[in-house]
Design brief:
Blueprint: E1 8-10, E2 13-15, E3 20-28, E4 33-42, H1 44-56, H2 58-62, H3 66-82, H4 84-95, H5 99-124, E5 131-133, E6 138-144, E7 149-152, H6 167-174, E8 179-182, H7 188-205, E9 212-215, H8 220-227, E10 234-238, H9 241-253, E11 257-261, E12 268-270, H10 272-291, E13 303-307, H11 310-325, E14 329-330, H12 334-349, E15 353-356, E16 366-367, E17 370-375, H13 376-381, H14 383-386, E18 394-400, H15 403-411, E19 416-422, H16 430-441, E20 444-449, E21 489-495, E22 516-518, E23 521-523
Parallel strand pairs: 5-22, 7-8, 7-10, 8-9, 10-11, 12-13, 12-19, 13-18, 17-18, 19-20
Antiparallel strand pairs: 1-2, 3-4, 5-6, 6-21, 14-16, 15-17, 22-23
Helix pairs in contact: 3-5, 3-7, 4-5, 4-7, 5-6, 8-9, 10-11, 15-16
Amino acid sequence: MNEQVSPLLLGGRWQSSLEMVGSFRATDPETGNAVGSAFPISGAADVEAALTAAGAVAAELAATSPERIAAFLEAYADAIDADADTLAALAHIETALPAPTRLRGNELPRTSNQLRQAAQAVRGHTWSHPVIDTAAGLRSHLAPLSKPVLVLGPNNFPFAFNAVAGSDFASAIAARNPVVAKAHPLHPATSRRLAQLAHLALLDSGLPAAAVQMLYHFDNAMGLKLAGDARLGAIGFTGSRAGGLALKAAAERAGVLFYGEMSSVNPVFLLPGALAERGEAIAQEFFASCTLGSGQFCTNPGVVVVPRGADGDAFVAAAAAHFAAAAPMTLFSRAGVDHLAQGIAALREAGAELLAGGCAGEGGFRYAPTLLSVEGETFLARPRALQAEVFGPASLLVRADGPADMARIAGAFEGNLTGTLYRAADGSDDAAWQAIAPVLRARVGRLINGKMPTGVAVSPAQHHGGPFPSTGHPGFTSVGMPAAIRRFAALHSYDAVPDALLPMELRDANPRGIARMVDGHWRDAGPEVRA
């Protein structure tokens, strides 16, 4: 077998694998057939080369001017936009996601937009939080880790969370850290094309060519070994809870920062007045949200709490009808179909009743949209089993009595990315809201009123994170600049250091004209410090 295998981006150039322990090809989810060229599965030599090369330029990148970093991010964003048709076509073949709407029309603009927002945060220094205490002679700011950041991309967002283009990547580079990107093996050709564009933008902007390395695949043991290498500064991960927890444990043993988005069922509470007011419309919104992208969203509404009574029964009937009428949906992989089937079987074993779906489709990787239901008492008796994430177009309805029962159910949830309450416009649900929302608030990163959770705006106010185990740290977000950048930074403090020897951001004259906190008060860009 002499099949040509794609090169890796190592040491600032495209080169053949130094230790290929196998190869793989992408699969078309619509047909189940392999597509495209072969890609290497890397052994230890490739991983060592990537880590060594990235570490060798960490100090140079940390000393690079913000303007050059911003210029790279903007040039890369421009290159992605210019290549949008090619990128969308590649990603469509590898993921079966709709090219005109989801990929070309939504996810690609989001990706280039977040790169530009990162560039804006770099130019404005809004991520670095400069603080000056003139009386104590202390000054501090957030600065680069001066070590590589390992980014492991997920299967469900080939652009916006891609290891070599997504939010984790943009955040790490914005903080002036080199990136070792581990592409997801379900979309290798898409990742290769993005890496080609990133590499050209690096060269054009004058940044170190080895600031970005990309590997396509390695086995789990190699991943754990890499995560536990103290030469890394941090890890950005989006994926399964099992994988995330294993990586987190390895990283923490070595003192490596781990920021992982791992699992979430995003509970939705439907209050009685809202159901009476617009139950049918909410049922349609729920079905659309649950099946968006074939349900392969981290913000999929996986558990919906529905009050007992006539309006609740009508909602359940309407939702079940939507699910039952839908054709099987295409998932990313055979493993995804198998895991979904296993998750649904586990919910049924724990006491859930199947209302619609629950079966695989024919051809490719397909599964029918699936709706289940369980009584609130059963959910409270088996909360862990009945709130396990089931990744795909599936959701569990939990039937509850009044607000007090709903509040008890809210208290049984683990940490989640989002929590939603639907309330009536006339205020009749406000007392119920006040009983449930504080309980839910402590268990979610983003509290939502009156809409399904699948939309995630790229905004400085966004929080795409939440309490453990939805993520590894409740105080950080993987979406939204400048907050996402701060994950990959170190707090540097200077005590009695002469002005001329301080970083530019902390000098009295404020030569970069940025906003800073001086003696407890934020000052707009420009004014000098007067001791």
